[in-house]
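Question (not urgent): is this output format expected?
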Amino acid sequence: MGTQSPTLALVGATGAVGTVMIDIINGRESVPWGEIRLIASARSAGKRITVRGQELTVVELTPEAFDGIDVAMFDVPDEISAEWAPVAAARGAVAVDNSGAFRMDDDVPLVVPEVNAASLANRPKGIIANPNCTTLSMMTALGALHREFQLTELVVASYQAASGAGQEGIDRLYAELEAVAGKGLGGQAGDVRKALEADGLSLSDTPFAGTPLALNVVPSAGSYKGDGWFSEELKVRNESRKILGVPELKVSATCVRVPVVTTHSLAVHATFAREVTVEAAHKVFEAQSSIVLADDPENGVFPSPAEVVGGDPTYVGRVRQALDFPNTLDFFVCGDNLRKGAALNTYEVAERLAPEFT
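Got this back:
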């Protein structure tokens, strides 16, 4: 143990999630880092970004960029993380990876600090994985309930924002909304398609399975994996099991893309081994500093993406005893998928590691 402050690197500093990460760092009252190093592709190297009042120059992603770094956060595509996170670890850094490259690796912990922070200590490869933003949006709430009542079965329907498909998804949704705005569409099946085509928007290259997202919902998220399942649905199943430490947990998910720019929502149907009531669940949620309980449906109080976007907490509402299902709760969860679902969790993991290097 030394006396110097630890050093932090952000790989992918100029990307969509990296930009949110910098906003989070700038918004902290204090940070434990003695140095923050911004890393990106050769194309972005040389850019200058202000972090905590200091203008920093983005450096190119090379092995040497990790020299002297204690914790390296990766906000880059899977293939970049797969190549470079092991390089960072070999240079002595702990890599905290937001991609899907290592999530199901048995030698890489998949961590949500509010749920399984103890897993941080077991990292044989020097890499820690961040969950998929869909799983993460509900995991703080589920983890808290699991500790009290022991989760046994989970059925989830997600309503996922366009930003989950990256900047391409955001740009496409805005373009589609502009194409259909003011057109007085009559609701016929081909109306939206015709409006898009009239604006030169081909459906052959849309990130939404060749289907319009404007004025529509698309029951497809991620890549098709066979037997009727898409990758986002399998991630919910596999990642929930790993994070909660319940490898045989019964999980089924249906993931739907909706015309929302940012913030994922999930309708959760959770069954427990022990008796659970709405009142008891409320107490559990209210005890969690990272959960906001908004649950007064009679007066129109419940979470929705428009109210949640840009916030750090998980928002929970519509908590109710499932009809006809014992020991089961239904509830609705919203979380900003770029902030809470990606950048914030990655950074909170990094902060948990900081004391190891002081």
